[in-house]
Amino acid sequence: MGRLSTHVLDTVSGGPAADVAVELYRLTADGGRTLVTTRRTNADGRTDTPLLAGDDFLPGTYELVFHIGAHFRATGAPVADPPFLDVVPLRVTLIEGHYHVPLLCSPWSYSTYRGS
Known about the structure:
GO molecular function: hydroxyisourate hydrolase activity
Number of strands: 9
Largest sheet: 5 strands, mixed
Radius of gyration: 14 Å
EC number: 3.5.2.17
Strand content: 35-45%
Enzyme class: hydrolase
Organism: Xanthobacter aminoxidans
Distance between the termini: 16 Å
Subunit structure: Homotetramer.
Oligomer: single chain
């Protein structure tokens, strides 16, 4: 059994990014995608439950979509109009095990890695 979790960190404030909408899509071989779940990050920048776990975890390619532009507008961070980064999509291939995908972001940049 596998599990997919995430954590969003705001590098402008130096802390967790709360109330960020995160969508998870499963990608199909023909280029389509199916919405699996939509969550919001809590005060710690994490979702309250994993995005995928147990029987819902199926090997394949997924796309996490982070709506960070709304977070930065809500916090009063300096955001261009239109924002340079508004929605950040990340594609990951899951096989088995625990996948943790942190997103470190600002209105101008982001980075990610496979965490533990």
